[in-house]
Design brief:
The chain is 9% helix and 31% strand. By secondary structure, the protein is mainly beta.
Length: 177
């Protein structure tokens, strides 16, 4: 799903885990309490299901049901990805095969997350791709998804994605169309 800025800002559901990026460069994972509209300090908000880690503890809602996403073939253990923040505000990303939502939450907790949410599941969707520039963008897969090419986000794609950039000196602007 591609998100426009309007959808990313106004389409947020109350009580859902949300990755929020702010204009000052800070990123947080939190339960959304902001209502239908976000203030001008928020660049984007990407939601998933409820938090899987909150206050440094596993969510008591974790279980093996489809509440945590429909899996291919109703498998319990599948590729899962998640993102969290530690107590200093550092972003933590996890991706692994053969995970339940509970084991994913434990991985993020062990990595230091005080709040975390599940992202993509099933073998088709999880991707983490890095790029370096050497006469053109050269992609490299970090998550070994054989169902998606390393060039996935260099061409039109119908899924949402998050880009992380190296901080540069001076004012930061985020272009929107």
């Amino acid at each position: 799903m591609s998100w426009t800025r309007r959808q990313a800002i106004t389409g947020c559901g109350i009580g859902l885990a949300t990755l929020v990026a702010y204009r000052n460069g800070r990123v947080d994972v939190q339960t959304w309490h902001g209502g239908a509209k976000a203030g001008p300090a928020i660049v984007f908000a990407r939601q998933s299901l409820p938090l899987i880690v909150d206050h440094g503890r596993l969510s008591p809602r974790l279980n093996y049901s489809t509440e945590w996403g429909y899996t291919l073939g109703n498998a319990v253990r599948v590729w899962r990805t998640g993102v969290g923040v530690d107590r200093r505000g550092n972003l933590i990303y996890a991706a692994a095969n053969d995970q339940t939502v509970i084991t994913l939450a434990r991985v993020l907790l062990r990595a230091g997350a005080v709040r975390a949410m599940q992202f993509d599941i099933n073998p088709e969707w999880p991707t983490l791709i890095t790029y370096h520039h050497q006469g053109g963008l050269i992609p490299a897969k970090v998550v070994p998804n054989v169902m998606q090419p390393a060039t996935r986000y260099l061409v039109p794609d119908d899924r949402d994605f998050i880009a992380v950039y190296r901080r540069l000196r001076g004012p930061i602007t985020v272009p929107f169309r």
